[in-house]
Amino acid sequence: MLLLNRTLLRMARGLWGWILAITGLKLATLVATVEFAGIISGFLGNIASPALTVADASHAILSAFVTALAMLAAELLSGEAEYRCTAKARLSLRQGIFSKVLELDVGNIEKIGPVSAITSSVDGVESMQIYYSKYLPGLLYSLLAPFYLFFRMREVSLLPAMLLFVVSFVLLPVNNVFRHHLEKLKSEYWQRMEEMTGYYLENVRGLTTLKLFRRDEDRTQGLAEKSQRFNEKIMDVMRVNFSSFFLTDGLIYGAVTAATAIAAWQLFSGAISFSNGLMVLLLSFGFFSSVRQLMNATHSALAGVAAADRVEQLLAIDTTRPYAPDMAVEKEPFDGIRLEHVSFAYQGRMAALRDVTLDIPRGHAIALVGLSGSGKSTIASLLMRFYDLEQGRILLEGRDYISFKPEELRRRVIMVPQTVSLFSGTIAENLRIAAPDATDDELLEAVKEVRLADWLRSQPNGLATEVGDAGGKLSGGQRQKIGIARALLCRAEYIIFDEATSSVDMDSEREIWNCIEELAQTRTLIIISHRLSTIRNADQIYVLSEGRIAEAGDHDQLMQVHGLYRRLVEEQAQLERLGEEGLCHG
């Protein structure tokens, strides 16, 4: 039953005061209980004695009443301390986990998965807080209470005291036999819960697709099967718990029966008085209350230990990044961003980039094109320093990327991703994520630049318009435009557009590209787009194939080469013509 988990103990900072307070109040309750038992047994043992006076009886009743009040006060204070400890544990654990999640970059988030982060910070914390409010105080209490009870009972009857003391400590290793099995089951239980949670979230996100293809019933069946497997693990845990309680309760009741029988034999033999016999009977169950509390807390805390193992994996992730601020700046730095012989592979996958060298001159528009999986978005991620390089180097105006902290770098290089993330709240609040101190006029100017000003003026609340959960009240085009406006508010010199128009309608796409073309006059742009017709005006186009630079040049130069770029342009133009013809015939 000794669940001394290093992760949980390390995260107990700031909670030990409450843990010790709960333990102390439990001991105070025990002391009051023993005193109450002594008063009651003494009173009942002497009730038939002619020496008992009314004053003695009144004193005994008053003493019992005062002791009962002390017990009640200690119990109430113990409950309040547990509540305070629980609240602080929840807050401390969630802050620790959430702070760690915020330290992770894109690559590490992909490793652990968003479901694991959710279950760790929600369900995991609910299980872990029991460890602090119930288990640790129960462990300390169960180690101290039997000694106190033994020394109090040995004055009354040594033999029952010794029996109960020994059995109370025998219960610990006996219960450990079940604990090892339960630890394995709890780990499997936690894994099943994560699987079910992840499957459920996946279905909720893809509900529209499931409805379109009439696969919702299949997925419902899949969820039912995962729920059943999760339920089976719960039942396995309950069966082991029942077996554990059956054996330990058998030992407890057997020990209490034996102690009562010994006390009765001593009473009939005249070795102890009637009041002492009552004292043994009253305290026998009290001997095991601490152990039973610990057993109950142990079975609950096991889920917290299993959750702590997952949290430990999260907390153990190394979030440090290479940083060398004293690296020398090149004597004749390139005015822009330069990639030199860059190679990169995602963990467990083939190389995404192989010896890539390219230049992004300041004040120019650079386009990256190629088939899916050719490495375009990987270059964007490396430019944002979501990942660190394996080979080669990236220079920003003559300074190596590792001479910048990621947050410092991202003030100069910003990205508009394929899907912009908005948060519940107002348009102004979402825009100020990029610039917390921006004035309303600055926000309106950014909105105007992305051609969203007319729509915003039509809204009664203007910048205070609510966007809904994850921007659900806005269209895809409006969300993307707000994402671009947010990027503009950063005042970054370099802006990456990673398929920024792939999820919007044609009208919105046209407006966004017009906006991007205007930005190209004042900013350095790195554009990744599947619509090749939209990047024909780029100053330089890099064509990627299987992680390498296959071709480079402007549109006219590449069209003369008769290579991959020309083939892609011609194939896309043919598909667009077929689509237009289909619309006309329709």
Description:
It is a single chain. A 6-stranded mixed beta sheet has the order 6-7-8-3-9-10, sandwiched between helices. A 4-stranded antiparallel beta sheet has the order 2-1-4-5, covered by helices on one side. Strand 9 and strand 10 (548-553) form a beta hairpin. With 586 residues, it is an alpha/beta fold. The N and C termini lie far apart (73 Å). The mean pLDDT is 81. It has 2 domains: 6-315, ABC transporter transmembrane region fold, CATH 1.20.1560; 336-585, Rossmann fold (3-Layer(aba) Sandwich). The protein has helices at residues 6-10, 16-45, 54-103, 106-112, 114-153, 158-205, 207-212, 216-268, 274-315, 376-383, 406-409, 427-431, 440-449, 453-457, 476-489, 506-519, 555-561, 564-585; strands at residues 336-345, 351-361, 365-370, 391-396, 399-400, 413-416, 494-498, 524-528, 540-545, 548-553.
What is the helix content?
Answer: 55-70%
The fraction of residues assigned to DSSP E strands is 5-15%
The ordered string of helix (H) and strand (E) elements is HHHHHHHHHEEEHEEHEHHHHEHEEEHH
Strand order of the largest sheet: 6-7-8-3-9-10
What is the SS-derived class? alpha/beta
Q: What's the number of extended β-strand segments?
A: 10
Query: Which residue ranges are poorly predicted, with pLDDT under 50 across at least 5 consecutive positions?
Result: none
CATH class of the largest domain: Mainly Alpha
- The number of helical elements comes to 18
Arithmetic mean pLDDT: 81
The main sheet comes to: 6 strands, mixed
CATH architecture of the largest domain: Up-down Bundle
User: In angstroms, what separates the terminal alpha carbons?
Assistant: 73 Å
